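Contributing new records

If you add data, match the layout below exactly. Sequence lines come first and carry their own label; structure lines follow with theirs. Keep one chain per record. Anything else will be rejected by the validation script.
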Amino acid sequence: MLAHPVLHELLELRRPDITPRELRVNWFSLEHAEQLYLEYLELDQDQNGMLSSAELSNYRCPTVQLTPEFVDRIFQECHTYRNRESAQSEIDYKAYLDFVLAMTYKGTPEALAYFWRLLDLRKAGRIGTFEVSYFFRAVIDKFDELGEEPNCKVEDVVDEIFDMVAPADPMSITLRDLLECKVGETIVGMLTDVNAFWQYDRREQLMGHGEEDA
């Protein structure tokens, strides 16, 4: 517990010289709590205190571009409430905070376990090429919707993901494989967020621009 970065973040609040910018990104500060709640209110377009799948899809857009398939899985696996007027399933603020925590700290074991529940479509404890193809094909479809060129094939990226994970069973990936491969955050991004895959796919170009800027 003493070595955990979350505790370090809590202890940061004891610093007398902590800046307003640092407070806005510190999960234990009042400023950050207010910011999160304001974001929630902005997403809640009908102002009924809950978020529908369509409202959650606008999460931090355009920097994040979640696929409809991934958002649907959130509403299938998380506790939801039925809207009497629209008959839609909606999530409350608590479920939203769980989602935001997972999105913010994708590389942590807790976040990867959260995403694993969503990726494991058949609740088999392992995912194969079918699940990886299902989620990545949604990323490609989103590229087409945005008028962008994906510049890749689904089959090639599926093979690349399996190579990155190097699972114990070459035919399927387990949560343990995802945790031990050390690139779980990258893989989750590739399967759920168009912008995350775009950055991964063009990482060499972006690194080159970074060096030129430096």
